[in-house]
Amino acid sequence: MTDLQRKLSRLTDFFPIAGWLKTYTRQDFNSDLFAGIITAILLVPQGIAYAILAGLPPQLGLYASILPPVLYALLGTSRTLSVGPVSIAAIMIASALNSPEISALGNPVQSALILSAESGLIMLLMALLRMGGLVNFISHPVLTGFTSGASLLIIGSQLPQLAGLKSPSCGFDSACYRDYLSGYNSTTVIIGVAALVMLIAFGKPLTSLLKKAGLKLSLVMAISKCGPLLTVLLATLAVGYFGLTLHNKVAVVGEVPAGFPVLSLDFIDLQKWRLLLPGAAFIALIAYVESVAIAKVTANLRGEKIVPNQELIALGVANLATAISGGMPVAGGFSRTMVNFSAGARTQMAMLIAAGILALAVIFFSPWFENIPKAVLAAIILVAIIPLVRLGSIVHTWRYDRGDGIAEIVTLLGVLVLGIEEGISLGIILTFISYLRKTSQPHIAVVGRIPETGHYRNIKRHQVETWEHLLLLRIDESITFANVNFIENFITAELKRQANIKHIILIFTSVSDVDATALEALENLNHALQASGLTLHLSDAKGPVLDKLKKTNFIKQLEPGKVFFYTEDAIKELA
Questions:
Q1: For 434-450, how does the pLDDT look when each residue is reduced to its tens digit (9 = 90+)?
Q2: What pTM did the predictor assign?
Q3: 205 Cβ contact partners less than 8 Å away, ≥ 6 residues apart
């Protein structure tokens, strides 16, 4: 490979867009154009809705849907991931901004921009440290429990919006809550319920009907995904035509500034940066994990690959860009990505087109957004969020693995009771405790030979032949400081139970490593066994394990014990 080719390869690695543009065709553009238009239809109502969910002015959600997806398109390795405001990040932003020490400082917009900047810097630092594999350290049950818990919080925050209720200040006073609930706005309820019905109808019912009518799949997709925009449009027209904001006090979005904000670094405030850092770290972590998980889903369907460390760079730059351009933190959105993918997006050109359409809408049509009822936005959020509540997953996980089931339940309850950051932290801690418990108590099988074969299986599961002077033990885990005492105790218990044992054969088929602490413990065990007139042997050890053992005196210390290539060889010699 020449120097020029190496440079081009490095350029393609850092700017994946340079790779797919080489083979970009007119057919790809036609598919991306259609997908971009469909995705843009979702970006407007979702951008406004998620900004309001975070407790921020609506324009922050719109600004976050323009520059960040453009930069992700240049740097990201997923061809279909839709980067912008997302519901889970929005509720985490709201949690951070509502903390007493942050809210006391005022200016939530500045705080949101700081969260964006800090999240981006944290992701870039993670990329510099090659921490792309961090996605593997949050187990699926913990992530599912967190998502379900956060989704329930979002649902709880949006139901009052659907009824026109303001946030209660009643504590646990039941009488006060009755008065609070009686203060609903009937017109808002009608608008909210009608919006819910329309959004649900535009889902599976309309899709099934259009398919039965024989329409093309692409046309079915286009019509069904127009539901949110059409719902917003009709509700906004109704509010303006009937003057519902004046006569019926229907809550609306309010003024949305036209055009783009000036790119700025005015949000820098060292006191807030320090206070917001923990919240930003959790937002960065969850945004990255969720984005990579979503990106992998669509990539796997097309045989494409995601580069986790490059995703950190792309998402980090996108979040820095949204801070400078006046937007809220961003991540990959599940619903938008699936819409983009299902609409036939071939590359990130679809998101470039969607961002361009949204930019035109912000410049020329911002006044149209003012009369959007908040109840309709709440309905859009609810329809997008409800599928993310997967309580049935807890039962499935519990049946399969109690430890993972407990972690999922505790994460969900922790998010609901303690808070976003505390809940996910508790889940991660429990996952590691469960992992350590499993590794500290590995499965050890006393094995025997299946008659007339060379296969050795657990004596509790199979009819096998054994020898009264031989103890064959298969250790189904690497031997480390965490479990070597358990292994020693198991061997001691078996020797007490079988008094005629002369030889102990440790079968290492599942042992991939023996650390220094475990080696010392095995040496001490060997000396103790030799003092008692017993001999320790090894069999089926893997090459890397043997290489490590040969660098020590352990194999010499085994004598007269031996290292056998196969367990069958040990039986032929010792039986």
A1: 888 888 899 999 999 99
A2: 0.78
A3: none
